[in-house]
Specification:
Blueprint: E1 5-9, E2 15-16, H1 18-31, H2 40-46, H3 51-62, H4 67-72, H5 86-103, E3 109-110, H6 114-123, E4 127-135, H7 136-146, E5 153-157, H8 168-177, E6 184-188, H9 191-200, E7 203-207, H10 214-219, E8 224-226, H11 229-237
Parallel strand pairs: 1-4, 1-6, 4-5, 6-7, 7-8
Antiparallel strand pairs: 2-3
Helix pairs in contact: 1-5, 2-3, 3-5, 6-11
Length: 238
């Protein structure tokens, strides 16, 4: 398949954000009087469906929920976590967002080979965008700081745009890039990304270095799976 555009997820796909996400969720939960010693493995499970869902998952984990229960939250039919006070989620989110905005690039870095892969993709005349369920302010800062000039369009969560797996972000990206879904591929590391590509009517590539293990990606519908940045570039441009 020859593509004209590649739309990337951010966390777990092009950027290793795990340390800063863990620090931010622990800070916000601690400031609000909750459990605040979550591990990186727990943090991987929390994120993927935006901050609001991540906080719901953290509060459920505090109550003893296992990984399977946590991953259900934020999916169709499980938009809210049982037994979790929505006002408390909002209170923690109000602490989390400004703190994460301040520290979001402290430990965050591109995954090995990603810079080179994006340059190779763009050299093949493929336009590149990045979309994320993290707040748009953080997305724009990270793109500016870590990927200057690499992406033709970037978009994060903002009012009026439904978060992934709704197709809003990919549709806005395609419009900005001047291409259509039949000429584009979506790249991500989680079940949310697989669903986003499906809902957008786009081809999808799943990466194994992010927040979900390969076997889980297969179970949730991944077809094309790559294991390093070189394989990713080849899958997009040949």
């Amino acid at each position: 398949m020859s593509y004209k555009a590649a739309i990337f997820d951010m966390d777990g796909t092009v950027l290793d954000t795990l340390t800063d996400l863990r620090l931010a969720i622990n800070y916000a939960m601690g400031q609000a009087g909750h459990k605040n010693d979550f591990t990186e493995d727990e943090t991987r499970i929390f994120f993927g469906s935006a901050v609001h869902v991540a906080i719901q998952r953290a509060l459920l984990r505090e109550k003893g929920a296992d990984a399977g229960e946590l991953l259900l939250i934020g999916t169709e039919g499980h938009e809210t976590a049982p037994g979790i006070d929505e006002d408390e989620v909002n209170r923690i989110q109000a602490i989390y967002k400004p703190y994460y905005d301040r520290i979001c690039s402290d430990h965050t870095k591109a995954y090995p080979g990603i810079h080179e892969a994006i340059k190779r993709i763009k050299a093949s005349k493929v336009l590149c965008a990045v979309v994320s369920n993290k707040p748009d302010e953080a997305v724009q800062k990270l793109v500016h700081d870590i990927f200057p000039g690499d992406f033709d369009f970037a978009l994060g969560e903002k009012p009026g745009t439904r978060r992934k797996p709704a197709p809003d972000m990919t549709e806005q990206s395609l419009l900005a890039l001047g291409t259509n879904k039949d000429e584009a591929v979506y790249i991500g590391d989680s079940e949310i990304d697989i669903m986003t590509a499906l809902n957008s009517g786009m081809d999808e590539i799943a990466v194994t270095w992010g927040f979900r293990p390969e076997e889980y990606l297969k179970q949730t519908g991944a077809v094309t799976i790559v294991h390093n940045a070189d394989e990713l570039a080849k899958a997009i441009v040949g």
